[in-house]
Design goal:
With about 500 residues, this protein is mainly beta. The protein is built from 3 helices and 21 strands. Helix content is about 5%, strand content about 50%.
Length: about 500
C-alpha cells in the first residue's frame, strides 16, 4: 500500500518553472596592512603557521604602504524547478580582482581594458530529487554543489559529490560524500570525504553535531607542491584527518545565541620514506550573543583557536619538513606535531568577518586582513580561527528603517607557542619570540538600503598593533613593529 500511494503522489506532471537570481557589486578598498594578502593569498597564505608572505615583511614591496583599488564580483544562478520533487541548479561567478586586471590569467581577472576574458566560473552544477516510494521524507542532491557546514569555523567548499538528507521530526540527518581529487582512475589514490550531520530544533534553539573523515590517500595535507597532480607527479604524502563539531543557535529569553566547538585530529605520513608521522590535534570555539532592543542591537563575541608550537611544526605540516623556529630548524628538527587548529584543504572560512582590519571585511566581503586565511587554500591551513583568541563588543542602531550604523571594538591575542602565529620577531639568541598581544581594533560600519534591491555599505577601522605583530628586519638586524594598520572600504550591491 505504501508503494502504491507513494507512486501516485509522484505521478503528477508539474510545469517547468524557471528562475534567475544573483547580484552585481562594485567594491572600493584602501588599506595599510603591511601584508600583501589580497594578491598573495593563492600561494603564500597556505601555511599552518607563519602565514605572512615574505614580500610583505620589512623591506618588502607592501611594507608600510597604502594600497587602493576597485574590484567587482557578479553571480548568476539559474534554477529549473519541476514542482517540489525535482529541480536543477546552474550557478556562475565572475570576478575582477582589481579593475584593470592585467596578469594574463582568466579566472578572477575579467577587468582589463578590452575585457573579453574567459572568466565565467562554474560555481555549482547539481540537481535535487525528492526520493519516491519511501515514507520518510528524503532528498538527494548530486553534482558540483556547496558543502557548507558552519562555514565561518569549519568548512565551506564547492565541489563534486552527493548529499542525502532525511527529515525525522524534529531531527534532520544529512550524509555527505565528496570527491576531492581523482588520481589514477584504476588506483585507490584519491581524496574522498565522508560526513554525517544531525540537527534538531528544541523549542527556540537548534542543536547540532557533525563528524567528517578526510581520506587523502595521495595528496596528503598538501594537494601538490609542483603544480601537477592527478597521479602524474603529485605529493608522495598521504593523510587521514577527522573533524568533529557541536553547535547551537537560537533564542534564550531576550538574547540570541550562536555557539560552535570543533576539534580536528589525524596524521600525515610519507608513503615511501620512513619519516616520522606528523600528528594533528587542535580545537576552536566561538560564542556570540546578541541582545536586540527596539532600534538597537548589542552583542559580544568570544573566540579561541589553539596555536601551534613553532619548535614542533613546519609551515606545511608535512613529514620531514623543517620546523618554523630558525634555531631548531638549523639543528635539524622536523615537523612532528600540529597542535594548532586547522581547517580542511580548500575550505573557504574567510567568512570569519569579525573585524574590518584584522579579518575579512564585513563591508566588502573581500580577501583582505592580516588574519584572513582559508580562502580555498590547497592545503590544510589555520583558517581564520586557529592560532588566536579574540574578545569583541559591538552595538548597532537603526537611524532610519533604511540606515544602520554599527560600532565595534576588539582585543585580539596570539595562542602560538615558542613564537607568534603572524609576527616573526626573534630573541637575543635568534629563536622566535613568544608574544601574546596582537592588538586592539576599533571599527565603524554603515549600511544604507537605497532601494529594495540596492544596498550601499561603507566604513572601516584601525588596529593598534601589539608585540605579536612585530617582525624581524634582516637588513637592520632588529625587530620592528609595522606602522598602524587601517582599512576603509565601500560596497554597492545590486541583488536580483
Amino acid at each position: 500500500m505504501i508503494l502504491a500511494f507513494a507512486a501516485t503522489a509522484y505521478s503528477q506532471a508539474p510545469k517547468l518553472e524557471f528562475k534567475a537570481s544573483g547580484f552585481i557589486d562594485m567594491r572600493t578598498e584602501m588599506w595599510r596592512f603591511n601584508d600583501n594578502n589580497h594578491f598573495a593569498y593563492y600561494p603564500e597564505r597556505n601555511g599552518i603557521v607563519d602565514v605572512t608572505p615574505v614580500v610583505s615583511r620589512p623591506n618588502g614591496g607592501e611594507w608600510n604602504r597604502t594600497a587602493s583599488y576597485v574590484e567587482q564580483r557578479g553571480r548568476l544562478r539559474f534554477d529549473a524547478i519541476m514542482g517540489k520533487e525535482l529541480s536543477g541548479t546552474m550557478f556562475f561567478e565572475m570576478d575582477s580582482q582589481t579593475w584593470g586586471d592585467n596578469t594574463g590569467q582568466t579566472r578572477n581577472q575579467v577587468g582589463p581594458w578590452g575585457a573579453d576574458r574567459a572568466g565565467l566560473e562554474i560555481k555549482n552544477l547539481y540537481f535535487d530529487v525528492a526520493v519516491p516510494y519511501i515514507p520518510v521524507p528524503i532528498t538527494f542532491r548530486a553534482g558540483i554543489q556547496p558543502f557548507g557546514i558552519r562555514s565561518n569555523m569549519f568548512w565551506y567548499n564547492d565541489g563534486a559529490g552527493v548529499t542525502i538528507a532525511a527529515k525525522l521530526d524534529p531531527v534532520q540527518i544529512t550524509g555527505y560524500w565528496m570527491k576531492g581529487m581523482e588520481g589514477k582512475i584504476a588506483t585507490a589514490d584519491d581524496v574522498d570525504v565522508y560526513g554525517l550531520q544531525a540537527s534538531a530544533k528544541i523549542g527556540a534553539v537548534t542543536l547540532g553535531g557533525y563528524g567528517f573523515y578526510f581520506n587523502m590517500r595521495q595528496y596528503g595535507v598538501n594537494v601538490s607542491t609542483n603544480g601537477t597532480a592527478y597521479g602524474l607527479s603529485a605529493d608522495s604524502n598521504q593523510s587521514q584527518m577527522w573533524w568533529w563539531g557541536l553547535y547551537a543557535d537560537g533564542k534564550l529569553g531576550p538574547v540570541v545565541m550562536n555557539f560552535d566547538f570543533v576539534y580536528d585530529t589525524g596524521k600525515a605520513k610519507h608513503k615511501f620514506q620512513p619519516y616520522p608521522d606528523v600528528k594533528f590535534s587542535g580545537w576552536a570555539s566561538r560564542l556570540k550573543i546578541d541582545f536586540p532592543w527596539e532600534m538597537f542591537n548589542f552583542g559580544v563575541v568570544g573566540s579561541y583557536g589553539t596555536g601551534s608550537d613553532l619548535r614542533k611544526t613546519s609551515r606545511s605540516g608535512l613529514p620531514n619538513s623543517s620546523v618554523v623556529d630558525p634555531n631548531y630548524a638549523a639543528a635539524g628538527a622536523v615537523s612532528s606535531k600540529v597542535s594548532g587548529y586547522v581547517v580542511p584543504p580548500f575550505s573557504e572560512t574567510g567568512s570569519f568577518d569579525e573585524s574590518e582590519v584584522f579579518f575579512a571585511s564585513n563591508i566588502t566581503g573581500g580577501f583582505t586582513g592580516i588574519g584572513y586565511s582559508g580562502s580555498g587554500a590547497a592545503t590544510v591551513s589555520r583558517g581564520s580561527a586557529g592560532g588566536l583568541w579574540l574578545a569583541k563588543l559591538y552595538g548597532s542602531y537603526k537611524v532610519t528603517p533604511e540606515f544602520k550604523v554599527t560600532l565595534q571594538g576588539l582585543y585580539i591575542g596570539d595562542t602560538a607557542m615558542h613564537g607568534d602565529t603572524f609576527g616573526t620577531s626573534l630573541d637575543s639568541v635568534g629563536s622566535r619570540k613568544n608574544n601574546s598581544e596582537i592588538g586592539w581594533e576599533l571599527d565603524l560600519i554603515n549600511q544604507w538600503q537605497i532601494y529594495k534591491n540596492l544596498t550601499f555599505k561603507f566604513g572601516g577601522g584601525v588596529l593598534w598593533a601589539g608585540d605579536a605583530l612585530r617582525y624581524y628586519d634582516a637588513v637592520k638586524g632588529t625587530n620592528v613593529k609595522p606602522a598602524t594598520p587601517w582599512y576603509f572600504g565601500t560596497n554597492l550591491i545590486y541583488n536580483f
